[in-house]
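Internal QA ticket QA-208
Title: Verify multi-chain structure generation after dependency bump
Assignee: T.L.

Test input:
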Amino acid sequence: MKFLLKNHISDAAQSLKANRSRSFLTVLGISIGVASIVTILSLTGGVKRIISDQIQQYGDDLIVVRPTYTNHAKDIFSHLTDSMSFASSSLTLQDVASVKSLDETMLVAPVSVSQHELLGDNDAVSSVIATTPDFFNIFGLTARDDDDLNSSLSQNTIVLGSRLSVRLFDSVDTIGKKLIIKGESFMVVGVLSPIADPININNVNLDEAMFMSIEKSPIVDKTPQIQQINLRTRQDPATVANLVDQAVAKNHKNAKDFEVLSGESIYSPAENILSLMSITLSIVAGISLVVGGIGVMNIMLVTVAERTREIGIRKAVGAWGGQIMVQFLIEALILSIMGGVLGFVFGYLGASAVALFTPILPFISLDIVKTAFSISIAVGVVFGLYPAFRAARKKPVDCLKYYR
Amino acid sequence: MTATIIEIRGLNKRFGVGDAETLALRDVNLKIKSGEFVMVTGPSGCGKTTLLNIIGLLDRATYGEYYLDNHPVARISKRKQARLRNEKIGTIFQNFNLIQGMTVIENVALPLIYRGVGKTKRLKTASRMLGRFQLNEREYYLPNQLSGGQQQRVAIARSLVGNPSIILADEPTGNLDSRASHIVMEELREIHEQGNTIIMVTHNANLTAYATRVINIIDGHIDTDININKRVAKNPARQRRRR
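Actual output:
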């Protein structure tokens, strides 16, 4: 069987050229749908890349212990609701001590975040992170004047994020200044260098945070909650994670009210939420694609009606239904593929425009190219099939009787 | 004895349903031998075009038997029928039926596309065919830039390009003035003399002079069927020499 592909393509090109503006508008309709999907995919791709960059930056030897409250359901919705139940954590200072006592753990930093009013030269409400100096080493945070931060958090000394320092004292040069939290006076012994990362640790912008010793946290927070224990190891993270798991489980009398994460799984909740968002947005964008596809179908039905006589002539000289069908299907496909290409360009430009205002760089992978291409082909086939089928089914004698 | 190329038995064609039902053809029996020039005449609406469409595989009979080259058409698939239209049958219409968006040469080459002939060979064959009708200098004109007579000659060239054995012509001179009609009829006569079977539907009684057989249809039924035996082109080559 001959499909006469070359002839069909040149026929289609001729027909589309003959109706330039109408072809262009149809292509535009498809391209808007494809563009929105490409934009969404390239932006979520960009965010995912930031996350993976961060994993690389922090290394894969980071291990995190988090409390869990939900049962064993590990789906994304329970993760989403998990964060609401951090009111009381199952992790204790005893757990921190047990983890610390393991030979394999190098750096251990519990994290307890709370919000407090800080009284300096200016007043500010800010996140207070109660932790140990290991925190700075784990996340590679440095003081702006290269001070050693290892002994910075003790009795009544604190470290400030650079922007918080400015908010409180209108300066980043604030070492030695005093501030008051809940009537207790603390002295600033270090200010962090500004942090370029757009993604925060434990949902806190570290530039805007204050760091204090976890031992002193009961002064400002009667029942400190350890939301997380971060630790770093020099050995195989998975093995060490296992040891940590055993140590903490012993304290918890084997109750499974915590989880030990290492490597990429630390970021999986964020990635899952991202994927869910990107799927949701893509579905919304898919609606515009359906509208564009209906445009293709509409225009193809018009074309088939206009060219009824031509169909009759072609059949009279020996074309059979299948060849007529392929001819019109190819015309629809050309429309939708052109829409796909144009949409890809629009989508990339759109994502780049968004990138101008956000730290997200648009990210185009081969997968996104493939997705855009296959989506446009699918739209062409799905919405071109019916008009093509109608063209193929017409009886030659009826077509030849048709007058415009 | 020349072979029977078309045989029709008890053919009926019904249009419409219920009150609007009309019988365009009723109980038509017909045998056409290879090499005949058959003219089908009759008043408007008598069913002659319907008969031609059924013979040309453009339409199907409601019931009755139709054998093309001794094959029962009813049992041939649609796809096979398309191939028969392409290879065995050339059709000429009253209103030419050229595709307006295509040049003359592309129109003539159209049947060859569906035979899978490559572009260069296709256009060469079409060009040769147009040369036979003295239309070479019009090859890249669009159909609407030609006169009616020229358009009909292009249509004839198209019907012949695939070298079919049967030419069906539905009022080929119906839209032409007498001079163009004459030219077209002479072309058809020549085609006939080369051994083709021609079945032509016409209103014009004057044209029956070209035929070897005249069938008159009235109300969907064959009324008279006259053979003009002396004109049967049994050996076209000899006949041409005689002329």
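Spot checks passed. Helices of chain B lie at 48-55, 78-87, 104-113, 119-132, 148-161, 178-193, 236-242.
Status: verified.
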